[in-house]
Amino acid sequence: MDKIINIANEPISDKEKADKIRSYLSDQLIDSKSAAKYLGISRTTFYSKVEEGKILPVADRYLKSDLDKYLKTKDIDRSKVNIRYNSTESIKSDLSKSNKKSGFLAKVKSKGQTYIYLKRAVTVPGKGQRHKTIHSFGPLPKAIEELEKFLTHPNEIPSSLKEAGFGQSDIRKWIDDLNSESEAK
């Protein structure tokens, strides 16, 4: 909005001012969906910020410069917003910052075999909740074999498991769970 005021105060003709303002607005004005995405928050959160008067609309659009100012206020409580990941590196980065275990063992049947994965629930912008693979153990028999190897050789535990906060006690539990499940069949 400051930019528009500055243009309006420039010593140029009204037509030039109107052209400059129109040009600026065409680059700067975005709709609510794009604005929420620009801020990295849900549309519900975005609309609540608009209702609270923390984000001001221009007609039914929003100025990127106003959104940038809002981002600087850090009014968004990131601990209450689902974590969004764009890459495996950002998962590793986030997991290494917290000592909390994050993930679950998943079994996927394909081509007559059961494959074992360590997965984590993440939120993907525009797509919602998804499961991201942290580590693939392979087919069930190979997975149990690999997990048992990690118990006898802890230095061979993959960094992806360590970064997710898992250790030998978790591996022992996974082996027990997988063995009891395969014996039940």
Write the layout of secondary structure elements.
Blueprint: H1 2-8, H2 14-28, E1 29-30, H3 32-39, H4 43-51, E2 62-63, H5 64-73, H6 88-97, E3 104-110, E4 113-124, E5 128-139, H7 140-152, H8 159-163, H9 168-184
Antiparallel strand pairs: 1-2, 3-4, 4-5
Entry summary:
The chain is of the alpha+beta class and 185 residues long.
Question: How many domain regions?
Answer: 2
Q: pLDDT under 50 segments (min length 5)?
A: 78-99
Question: What is the distance, rounded to the nearest whole angstrom, between the alpha carbons of the first and last residues?
Answer: 67 Å
Strand content: 15-25%
Largest sheet features: 3 strands, antiparallel
Principal-axes shape call: rod-shaped
User: Could you tell me the number of beta strands?
Assistant: 5
Query: Can you give the helix content as a percent range?
Result: 40-55%
Q: Provide a count of the helices.
A: 9
> Numbering strands along the chain, what is their spatial order in the largest sheet?
3-4-5
Which sequence of SSEs, written as H and E, runs from N to C? HHEHHEHHEEEHHH
Report the mean per-residue pLDDT as an integer.
78
Structural class: alpha+beta
Report the C-alpha radius of gyration, rounded: 25 Å
